[in-house]
Design goal:
- The chain is of the alpha+beta class.
- The protein contains 11 helices and 11 strands.
- The strands form 3 sheets. Strands 6-5-4-3-7 form a 5-stranded antiparallel sheet, with helices on one face. A 4-stranded antiparallel sheet has the order 9-10-8-11. A two-stranded antiparallel ribbon has the order 1-2.
- The protein is elongated.
């Protein structure tokens, strides 16, 4: 039984008995007298529990509150040590995902968890120091509009944004009805209905330069329509026109790729020589091409012919960089 559970047990014993002898606490909790005294001191000093010693009754009891004084109770939301450690780890991961993004909102919870754990083994600092999250391709850019976007998404409000397009190197003004916020490959995206294009689009949040909340309700897109639009595409790119790519990996590379999920609807098999075949749907080839290229000569595009030709042109062009 960890300390937070003991606090509740102590509280229950005091509630259900007029006075509780020390021996009852130590026996019921399975702790030493010294441990009980430390728990008692913590309850009194840190949580302001009105526990007093009743000499006549030979035990501890709750002191009757004075008129108009607040009634003591343990916090309604309470965690045992393992649950607190898990929450601290979640907080650590979220902080590492985007430093400072939700710091002000998370800080009160962290303070509460630290109070629960107190000076027990595995302090908050120990928990944070024993886990490390490595980011491979996160864009190191501030997200000043994240909270405004999150608020508009949850409150179902339209927003006006200025959006920067990296590929075209230009900006456009859009009115959006936010649908979902997505965390994908270490970056944040907004799925929204674009009133300018009259269709569903995904926007990288770090490319949103300005934002203004509009006093108009967001257009709600049915969940099934959202899923149908985004699930068939590959990666962050979506669309209704779907093609299937067929890739063949070497037997050596299959030891890794065969355990990976590239797409929820992927199809896999082995050919006669033990090479790994992966078939995946896509509507926009850009992200798929990047994933193919990272496997170098350990993968071959079999279908469709247009994708195979595109990969061949990329390798031919890249080879020129090394032939000088």
């Amino acid at each position: 039984m960890d300390r937070s559970e003991r606090f509740y047990k102590i509280d229950q014993l005091l509630i259900h008995h007029k006075a509780v002898p020390v021996s009852t606490f130590t026996e019921e909790l399975g702790i030493s007298l010294a441990t009980f005294k430390r728990d008692l001191e913590y309850l009194r000093d840190r949580l302001n529990a009105p526990i007093v010693w009743d000499r006549d009754a030979g035990g501890y009891r709750y002191e009757q509150p004075a008129t108009n004084s607040p009634v003591f109770s343990l916090p309604g939301l309470w965690f045992n040590a393992s649950e607190a450690h898990a929450l601290l780890l979640m907080q650590k991961l979220l902080k590492d995902i985007q430093p400072g993004l939700l710091g002000p909102q998370i800080e009160p919870l962290q303070t509460r968890l630290k109070a629960i754990l107190g000076s027990e083994d595995h302090s908050t600092e120990e928990v944070e120091s024993r886990f490390r999250l490595i980011h491979a391709a996160r864009r190191i850019t501030p997200l000043p509009h994240f909270e405004s976007i999150a608020s508009a998404t949850l409150n179902r409000q339209q927003i006006d944004i200025t959006h920067y397009n990296r590929e075209r190197d230009d900006t456009t003004h859009r009115r959006l009805s936010p649908q979902k916020i997505v965390f994908y490959r270490d970056n944040w995206y907004l799925d929204a209905w674009c009133h300018l294009r009259e269709g569903l689009r995904s926007f990288s949040i770090d490319t949103i330069r300005t934002i203004e909340t509009v006093n108009a309700p967001a257009l709600d897109i049915e969940t099934q329509i959202l899923e149908d639009h985004f699930k068939h595409g590959y990666g962050i790119f979506a669309g209704q026109i779907v093609q299937w790519a067929k890739l063949r990996f070497s037997r050596e590379r299959a030891r890794w790729v065969s355990s990976e999920s590239w797409h929820p609807e992927q199809r896999t098999s082995l050919d006669d020589s033990g090479r790994y075949l992966l078939e995946i749907p896509y509507s926009d080839e850009r992200e798929l091409i990047m994933d193919i290229l990272r496997h170098g000569d350990a993968v071959e595009v079999l279908e469709p012919a247009a994708l195979r030709d595109h990969i061949q042109r990329i390798f031919t062009s890249a080879l020129k960089n090394y032939s000088q």
